Amino acid sequence: MKRKNYLVGSWVLSLGVIAALSGCSSEEATGAAGDQVVMVGTQNDYPPFAYADDTNELTGYDVEVVKAIDEKLEGYTFEFVAVPWDSMFLALESNKIQAIADQVAKTPERQEKYLFTDESYFAAETVIAVKTGREDIQTVEDLEGKTVGALAGDSYTLLLEEYNETADTPIELKYSESGNPSEILQDVQNGRVDAYVNDPIMMNAVLEKNDLGVEIVGQPLVNDDMGIVLKNGDKGEELKALIDPILEELKQDGTLGELSIKWTGGDYIPE
Asked: How far apart are CA 197 and CA 187, in angstroms?
């Protein structure tokens, strides 16, 4: 088992800054011990899964899952880069990062474009959040004709965009310019949007931290399995073949369950 120090910088990088730092392909970079370096993109504002702590380092459930994989995987070093959600897949496609660990749902559309691990490391729900005390919204049908905060390209927004394709009255999606879920929840509290659709664990963490007057209502809309996303190609296939058995091992020995309980308060590991 490897013992090493992690270079977990909370760098919020635009693609231009990433490119400047990357210079050549990070797939070809080597660490101090001669390991191949794999740059892993994640957000810095998505607690408890991936966020910057008080020391400005990236931490959270997704980060610790990757660390657990890294401890068991010889010949590779994983380094983390905080990338805004709206730049995440572009960074992967342009090889500025080679993996994403950021609660990315395995949707059919994404699986056509990107390489996912077969093993999922988290099972997430999709729920609706509204201003506390509001009673007219309980289901996705209740969102028709109302304004809902959204992040471009995430699975929760894709769900609503697909719903709009057949809805009698489309949901008005207000796309966030900041890409920050906490700001959207503040918009819900302040009445700038009627609702927000996302993961309940993240939303409850943000609501508690910021003491917002927002609550989750109704039943979960869907359930999604989350996987690590890799760059398509031979290198991605190589990493996938190495990571999948380790994820299975971490699932079977209880490590993923322990991490899930530590960070989310429950065991949300898919069978």
From this structure: 13
Residue 140 CB partners (closer than 8 Å, separation 6+)? 128, 160, 163, 197, 221
Contact 77, 70 (CB under 8 A): yes
Can you give the pLDDT at residue 20? 40
The torsion angles phi and psi of 158, rounded to 5 degrees, stand at -60, -40
Give the C-alpha separation, 206 to 45, whole Å: 9
The confidence score (pLDDT) of residue 30 equals 62
Backbone phi and psi for residue 51, each to the nearest 5 degrees, phi listed first: -165, 165
Mean pLDDT by 10-residue block, N- to C-terminus, for the chain (271 residues)?
43 44 48 82 95 95 98 95 94 96 93 96 96 97 98 92 96 90 96 97 94 96 95 94 98 98 96 83
Tokens of 248: 């299975």
pLDDT score, position 53:
94
C-alpha distance from residue 38 to each of 3, 7, 26, 35, 66 (Å): 17, 12, 7, 9, 11
Q: Which two tokens stand for residue 99?
A: 């993996």
Cα dihedral 99, 105, 107, 112, rounded to 10, equals 0
Please tell me what DSSP assigns to residue 35: P
> The pTM is what?
0.81
Chain centroid to CA 34: 29
CA angle in degrees (0–180, nearest 5) for 129-131-134: 100
